[in-house]
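Minimal example, chain plus 4AD.
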Amino acid sequence: MSSIFKSIDNLFNDSLVGSKVAIRGWIYRKFALGGKIFVRVRDSTGVIQCVVDASRVNKEVYDSLEKAKIESSVIIEGLLRREKRAPGGFEILVENAKVVSYSSDFPIKGGEGIEFLLDKRHLWIRSRRLTCVMKIKHTVLKALKDYFVENGWWEVTPPIITASAVEGGATLFKVDYFGEPAYLSQSAQLYLEALVFSLEKVWSITTSFRAEKSRTRRHLSEYTHFEVEAAWMDMEDMMKVAEEAISYTVSRVLEERRKELEILGRDTSKLEKTKPPFPRITYTEAVEMLRKNNINIEWGEDFGADEESVLSKKFEKPFFITHFPKKIKAFYMKVPDDNPDVVLGFDMLAPEGYGEIIGGSQREDDYNKLINRIREEGMDPKDYEWYLDLRRYGSVPHSGFGIGIERLVMWIAGLDHIRDTTPFPRFRGRKPVP
Ligand code: 4AD
Ligand code: MG
């Protein structure tokens, strides 16, 4: 049997018609018609129809394919031909085949409920839909890395086991660290802040952990966090970096993942609008917009999913909300000189109702102001001794942000639930199985 295997997507090519081809993959669909078996085979690149005609293959080959169930792994060799009734317009007329491993009855047949599918997640990830989402996520990560590397930012590797909260104690996961309490990282930010004193512009991809109290469509307890931090940049500078990075990423996905977006049924005309500059509104303006839409909200209250969704439907591309009330944001955000009630923090929200995909800010770089903010929040400055050192030894203005990769993929792929942006999702109310 030929050892030159082709990727299935390379077979949809007129110049190969009439030639002998070999593929490897898994049986995706199968049916018999008029004495022939139609086996549709998938690999990581696509699906192709293979026709098994009893008069053209030996009995052993015919019987093996007749017996093989969905998801059996196979090697197939045959002649490529045009066939307008086959999906994609091509098919393989089988000459030889080998069932590498016969599959048992595959438990996912279609129509199963979500809990069952999550129990069988290790098998469900073979679906075309999840495969498309994983490819889109790959391209999102690759594009972001390319953007930051090409613009002179350094990749660094912060730790996951940490001693204190970044985003508030309420969502910390505690771990037993050789008998001492420690916590799983919520954000690499504080470590990235330390690293800008040598590298100036840094980024990292780490897993962040949040013990979210409720189960929602957009919260995971473990997610991929793409974070950036830079010395000498203020909030405005950082928002420009964020809008450029997101625009670049969306354009790369549109270039490289058209087929996957189409399979997912994503309306790409909505994504085409993602070009800088993104609209900017203040928190105060956002509150006014919400009130005009009959949403009862007081200045100073945080936005929940409902408020974000209303705002997010008013925009055709991602947009920023800035200058949040101090009391709803983290201790490290800088308070501007002209308004003690707000912080120089920004969120980027995706349109179409998706809501927050980025959280960022200019950091408080003054030692005295920072220690006061830590006390005001009821935290112990002793837990942040090392972080305070960063304001003792040559402090500089600096800013940064964090992108929730799964939130970004959820919007780009047009999904209605965050769980499908990650192969093995973790969220409250389910044991981490598989
Ligand atoms: O807004 P957050 O909490 O900001 C920070 O952690 C900053 N320290 C980041 C920084 O400045 N370096 O989280 C950043 C982003 C959010 O905008 C959201 O996209 C995502 O992380 N995120 C989550 N994604 C999935 N599940 C969760 N439970 C998430 N919590 C935050
Ligand atoms: Mg946030």
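The first strand starts at residue 20 and ends at 33. The mean pLDDT is 97.
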